[in-house]
Amino acid sequence: MNKPSRILVLGTGGTIAGAGAGGTGAAYRPGGLSLEVLVGHLAALGLAVELVPQEIARIGSQDIGFAEWQALHAACAGAMEDPAVDAVIITHGTDTAEETGLLLDLTLPTTKPVILVGAMRPADAVGADGMRNFANAVKVASDAAASGRGVMLVMGDAVLAARDARKAATSAIDAFRTFPRGPLARVTPASLDWFGPAHSVGALARYPFPAELPRVAILTAGAGMDAKPVEALLGIGARGIVLAGMGQGNAPKVVLEALAACAASGVPVVRAARVDEGLVDRNVEVDDDALGLVAARALGPAKARVLLMVLVANGVTDAKVVQAAFDAG
Ligand code: GLU
């Protein structure tokens, strides 16, 4: 019989570790359960793996920021080097799972599987989905074909590439969508079906993990707005701006002109869409070439902000180079 996989479990909190006053989960506290208690629940599932818990935080993922990202990155990078660890699972709130997932995807090599897992219902609520999702994540983490696929998110019997995943529902159990690609695999505790081969086995990290993250703001466009919010963002020292634009990344003419002035002054501007799904391509309705703007392509505003933060932190602000990074997904 093969040796059971040794999986590092990094706990951050979230609903998967949530506990409430009543059994319905109508009100609860994300991260109410310690990782020790959570791993105790997992042990009761009888999974044939060795879980090594390491608590990074016990918070709702709305409060995750640079300190937690740095700790997660260091722990994952250590696991990549440690021959005794086969894979990493990160228990995480769903609100910002797409941001943590993309940041790690951009800054880790793809040597071993790194899997985020969350839940939509707290651990002590009726119909809780956390243990099922965790058992699925273990199934993925233990699979020899899971390496070289970038950071993944396991939710609701689906395996999603972190760079494609986004939260699209506030409370439904099937809350995540994936774009432009579909799920990488379907998973249950009994089966795992990959839909294609791994694309980057053993690839190096695309970017070094930043020493600090610059202020990059998301500006949501609305009908009838003026350019004052753009001026305000420059006034607080924004080093990059992501437009969550109407339709295919649109904004009123005065706003686009103000954003073009930002770009000309060395503050890169990326046009994403406030629409839930779809590509934002260059020079379709907005003349990106003339205005010096970047099209976010498949990344929504939250993930576009993460990529732009990493780029600016690594000294990349030239619109053509920023565009090439967004074109690469
Ligand atoms: N807001 C909390 C968080 O993101 C709860 C949502 C969840 O985990 O599903 O951690």
Walkthrough of the structure:
With 329 residues, this protein is of the alpha/beta class. The protein folds into two domains: 190 residues, Rossmann fold (3-Layer(aba) Sandwich); 112 residues, 3-Layer(aba) Sandwich (Rossmann fold), CATH 3.40.50.40. 29% of the residues lie in helices and 21% in strands. The protein has nine helices and 16 strands. Strand 5, helix 3 and strand 6 form a beta-alpha-beta unit. The radius of gyration is 20 Å and the shape is globular. The chain binds glutamic acid. Glutamic acid binds next to loops.
Strand order of the largest sheet: 4-1-5-6-7-8-11-12
Shape: globular
Helix content: 25-40%
CATH superfamily of the largest domain: L-asparaginase, N-terminal domain
- Whole-Å distance between the termini? 40 Å
The helix tally amounts to: 9
